[in-house]
Structure formats: structure tokens, C-alpha cells
Amino acid sequence: MEDSDGGEASGAMGEAETSRRARERLLRGLAWDDFCDTLKQAGRLVEAFDDGQGGGPSDLERAEWYRFLSRMVRNGFERMIENCEPERPRLRDAPWRQSINVQNPDQDHLMCEFEDGRHAYRITGDRGTLPYFVMATWTAPQPADLAARDWAASGVAGLAEFDPTNLETRSFLTSRDIDFDAEGRFSVLLSADEPTAGPRNWLRLDPDATGVLIRLVYDDRRRVVPPHFEIERVDHPRPRPIEPEEVAAGLAKSGQIVLGYAELVRRWWQENLDQRPNTIVFSESTYLSNGGVLDRLHGFGSWRKGRDEALVIRFRPPECEHWILQLCNRWQENLDVYEDGQGYLTKFTAKPEPDGSILAIVADRDPGIGGSWIDSFSHETGVFSLRLIQTEGGPAVTIHRLPLARLEREGLAALDTVTPILSGQV
């Protein structure tokens, strides 16, 4: 393979030559061109959803697709340009309105990206009155010479070698495993070697780690005293100006983030979720394939109904720290209504039935038959999930699909003549 200068394969280059070529690619504008060409590759993936029989994305979904790509560009720049400086680690929340991979609206994501895990870090802060959080380190495929090479021409095939979205969790630490003082303050060390004081308040950091993520799980945002977290490198390096090769690397990572998430939603949809509409499967492998943490059970599925139809969902949640049932569009984004407290139900917002079960009605309007209404917001299909944190098992889920007008007219008695779809459990 030749690089953009027509030279030898960059994989055979030494570190000094790799740095020189990365620098030249940035200064000559080649790194920017490759970034832009990668975005074009990502945009065209929407055509892969068209089955040729009218089952492709609707006009609404196509509009959301291009908005989704714009959000992924913002996500890539925030993470890989602004927040991947070796001497300036920061914990930054995901950009506003980002909901990658069925992101929990009641969960914030504080992220800090690394070039690698060679350094030691310390995270300090106070939890406020936050009920629960979990810290995790991850790694992702990224070759050492990524900034010295063009990637757009490889398209999706290049993700096998370089994919910042293919996250593998290496270690995690929950708030249940951290010692706090009387005011809720704490200090956690991230390092390769276990400290002499023992494993509490320590998170292992592998040499190939590329980031740390803290998931902050809220019960009621209106009542929680907000937590505060900071990260620092233990050796306190002096800040320095940015280098051209670092910007080249940031552009490459940002482009691959957009392409990687575009391909991820295509692969999950076409090779998994769309094959089993209106079912929920608790799949550990699916969840862990993108940075999941084993403190929770996550069931995924696709939902499908007509604009004049409703889905009636019933399940009995087990004892757990938190649970959430949420609707997303085909691109795994929360529906816009979630900012209005709609589009999802949680352990703290749902109204259980007398027998302890949860009754949820998915429709474009509230049929007024009790239970909890989830607004499908003019969508006819999408992704939904049932996530349970610190649980011993998953519930059985029953789903009925029927005309909305009939449900409004007959109430829950209309379900007696509709064959239910059974799923859930582990």
C-alpha cells in the first residue's frame, strides 16, 4: 500500500518517519481532505437501508440521518480534537443532544480520551447526592501510524483496523466499590499497577487504553445535588502548544468516529434488530460490543407499528438500582420528545399497576386507558431497549400490536383477541 505521497506502506515506517508524514499531511491539507472524504462515505450508508420494496428510511428518518451525522461530527471534534491532549486531561460530558447507541436520558457521560494508557491519572470530586455511578476504561482499534495515512478510500473496510467506536471495556469500578468521606468526596487512582493500599479506589489502566468514561445515573435530576468530577495526570506535565501531527490524528479519529457509528447503526439494524420486530433480547455480547459495562443487563430490540397503531408493552421489573424502557429512532437516537420527559419510562417515573407490573402504551397519541403513554412522535419503526442496573435477572416482556382506535374504544379488553409477542428474560 502507498500513502498519499506515493511512498512505502506507512506500517513499515519508524516513529520519526510516521510523525514527519503525519505533520506533512496536516500542513498540506491532505488530512483535512481525507476527513471530508470520510464524511462522504458515512453519508452514503443510508442507502444500505433501502430494501428496494419501499422499506427504506422515510423522509423523516432521512432528515434525522443527516442530523445524526452532524451530531457525530460534533462528537468526534469534541472528543478527539478538543479533549485528547496528553498534557491536559479533562472529563467532558457528551455534547448536547447526543444519544449514541440508545443513550439513557437519565445518565450523563463524562469522557476523557487518551492517546494511550502509559500515564497514571487521578480522578477526584464529590458525588453530591447522586445515587450511583460507574467508571470504566476502554480501548479501541487504532494503529500507531493512523495520522500518517489516508482512510477514506478504505471506507467501511478500514474500520477493521481503525475504529474509535469499537470500544472494549477493560476495567470498571462502581460507586459501591469506592470509599467516600462524610461529605461524599473521593479520590480514585488510574494506573497500570495496583497501589500498595490495595484495590479500593483504584481503577486498572492498561497500556493500550484510549479513554475513561464515567456514567452518572440519576433518579430525579430536579432533586439531585449535582456531582463534581475532575481528572489530572499524576506527574503534572507542563502544558504545551499543539503539534500538527496531533491535529492530523484528531481529524482521522473524528472522521472514523462518524463512519464507525454510521456503520454500527446499519450493522445492528440489518444484521440483528430488524430481524425480530417487537421483541427484546437481553444480549450481553451485543451490549459489550460497544463499551458496555457488566454492572447492568441491557435488552435490545426493534419496534414496528403503523401510524394508526399502538404497541402495548407489559413487564414486571425485578429489584434493581435503576431501570429504563426507552424508544429510539432507527439511528439509535432518543426521540426528540425525551427533553419533555417523554419517549421513555424509568423506575422513578413509571406508575406500576396493582400487581407491580409496568404497562406502557407506544402510540402517536395517548389512548387514555391508563398505564404510561410513550409518544412514538410520528415514527413507525425504530430501536428500543430495556436497561436494568445492578439486577440479578431480566423480566419477561409481552407486546401486543393493534389498531389505536380499537384500543381507545375497547380499552385493555381489546388485547384478549390479539396474539401477544413474548420475549425478554435471559
Structure write-up:
Helices cover 22% and strands 26% of the residues. It contains six helices and 19 strands. The model is unreliable at 1-11 (pLDDT under 50).
Topology:
Layout: H1 15-27, H2 30-44, H3 59-82, E1 92-93, E2 107-113, E3 121-126, E4 132-139, E5 168-174, E6 185-191, E7 202-204, E8 211-217, E9 228-233, H4 244-271, E10 281-282, H5 284-288, E11 296-304, E12 309-315, E13 322-328, E14 344-346, E15 358-363, E16 372-375, E17 381-389, E18 396-403, H6 404-410, E19 421-424
Parallel strand pairs: 6-7, 15-16
Antiparallel strand pairs: 1-2, 2-8, 3-6, 3-9, 4-5, 4-8, 10-11, 11-17, 12-15, 12-18, 13-14, 13-17, 18-19
Helix pairs in contact: 1-4, 2-4, 3-4
What is the average of the pLDDT values? 92
Widest sheet: strand order? 1-2-8-4-5
N-to-C order of helices and strands: HHHEEEEEEEEEHEHEEEEEEEEHE
Helix amount: 10-25%
Largest sheet: 5 strands, antiparallel
Number of helices: 6
Give the DSSP E fraction (strand runs of 2 or more residues).
25-35%
Distance between the ends: 46 Å
Shape: globular
